[in-house]
Amino acid sequence: MDKLVLRVIFLLSASSLCISSLLAQSKKVLFQTSYGDIKVELFDFTPNHRDLILNAIKDSVYQDALFNRIIDGFVVQGGEHDLDIEAREKENPNLQKNRLPAEFDDRAFHRLGALGAGRDANFEKASFLNQIYFVVGKVVTEADLNSLEQNKGITFTKEQRIEYLRNGGLPRLDKDYTVFGQIVSGLDVIMKISRLPTDSNNFPLEKVPFKLSEIN
Predict the structure, then answer these.
(1) What is the pLDDT of residue 51?
(2) Which long-range contacts (CB under 8 A, 24 or more apart) does 121-126 make?
(3) Which domain holds residue 122?
(4) What single string gives the DSSP state of each residue in 86-102?
(5) Number of folded domains in the chain?
(6) Tens digit of pLDDT for each residue in 153-168?
(7) Which helix (H) or strand (E) holds 75?
(8) Gap between the Cα atoms of 5 and 13, Å rounded
(9) How far is residue 62's CA from residue 64's CA, in Å, rounded to a whole number?
């Protein structure tokens, strides 16, 4: 019981830190799941990805959507799966592969609870139009950050270092995948989902549907 209490306290404090460290943004979305609700603030400084998901809601792109790739200590991914995108595009090789150009901003990084856009191995690091993920992440050390700076040729800001060292995340994805939102309520829900049993291909053994809507 003591370990459970400590874990809950950690999640609540981490969520509070995420909220307080962000400037007020204009748009929020709600992920409704059978495990609880997840409220996410979208970043105005990644406007194209913000608008992409808002338009997707209006167009019912995520209707009957699933969290279909779950890796504890890494991400919870939802929307169209990589394998389905690859198969669909192989069937129509003459059609342009639609992607959204990357939007990188130092204020949008792979902290615990970050919302990012999935992509394939395209050179431009452009995003899929209908795949998202939440960062579950893991413990990060000073040595990890220093090594990433040297190997990737990037520099972590003071805020990023503080956040990663305090609450963990996935700094190795920074400047490679676009982050465009942050959980402001329901971090415990996504952590619970991240621990669901999966098969060898990281598919959850039971379907994990979600409904997505815009909220005030």
Answers:
(1) 98
(2) 122/97, 124/99, 125/176, 125/177, 125/178, 126/99, 126/100, 126/101, 126/102
(3) 2-215
(4) HHHHHH-TTS----B--
(5) 1
(6) 999 999 999 999 999 9
(7) strand 75-79
(8) 12
(9) 6
The set of residues, in sequence order, having a beta carbon less than 8 Å from that of 151 and lying 6+ positions away, is: none
Measured distance CA(204)–CA(148) in Å, rounded: 31
**Contact call for residues 11 and 188 (beta carbons, < 8 A):** yes
What pTM was estimated for this model as a whole? Answer: 0.88
Query: In the prediction, which pLDDT does 7 show?
Result: 42
CATH code at position 77:
2.40.100.10
Euclidean distance between CA atoms 78 and 24, whole angstroms: 26
Structure tokens at 210: 């979600």
**Cα–Cα distance between 177 and 114 in angstroms, integer?**
11
Provide DSSP, 109-169.
--BTTEEEE---S-TT-PBPSSEEEEE--B---HHHHHHHHHHHT----HHHHHHHHHH-B
Ranges of the chain whose pLDDT falls below 50: 1-21
Distances (CA, A) of 41 to 22, 108, 117, 179, 200: 9, 12, 14, 11, 32
